[in-house]
TrEMBL record:
Function according to Swiss-Prot or TrEMBL: This protein is part of the stalk that links CF(0) to CF(1). It either transmits conformational changes from CF(0) to CF(1) or is implicated in proton conduction.
Species classification: Bacteria, Pseudomonadati, Bacteroidota, Flavobacteriia, Flavobacteriales
Family under the similarity heading: Belongs to the ATPase delta chain family.
Superkingdom to which the source organism belongs: Bacteria
Organism: Salinimicrobium catena
Protein name (record): ATP synthase subunit delta
Amino acid sequence: MQGSKAALRYAKAIFSLAKDKEVTKEVNDDMVLIRETIDGTGDLRTFLKSPVIKDSIKKNALLEIFKDVNGITSGMFDLLMENNRLEILSQVAAKYMFLYDQMNNVQVAKVTTAIPLTPALETKIQQKVKELTGNEAKIENIIDESIIGGFILRVGDIQYNGSVQAQLNNLKREFKNNTYVSKI
């Protein structure tokens, strides 16, 4: 991912400053808002990446969109503008959120499903996370219809694949290795 290392460096610097000022939670809330807004709005993402639009206009737009953010967060807009890096704002927000979760020992469980999670499914997945890791986690749902059904769970280095697609692939492998079926 282009800009990922730079995004991490900016996030670490902002996190350190927020920690010194004891406003890590407020800045994290800002980062969640920034990430959701940019990722949810294709026009804003395109606007930030556009080489035609001046960085000063981009910064003013960000300050207008995110009026109520912490001073550290608005200072980040200045810093990114000075270094011609406004296009990595969403990545910086994501890296900051990761650092914040890490500081607070919060795990993020990425759950890939064919359909959006219901509260009942979320409860079952939370139980599976607790079974696998011993802790609860924030659940991030990724929708991928190609898995057909079931779910794929990723928590840190652990992956549990309970998808229908994985089960079909396992059956296919078993049939290929079965000497009686392969002769038919």
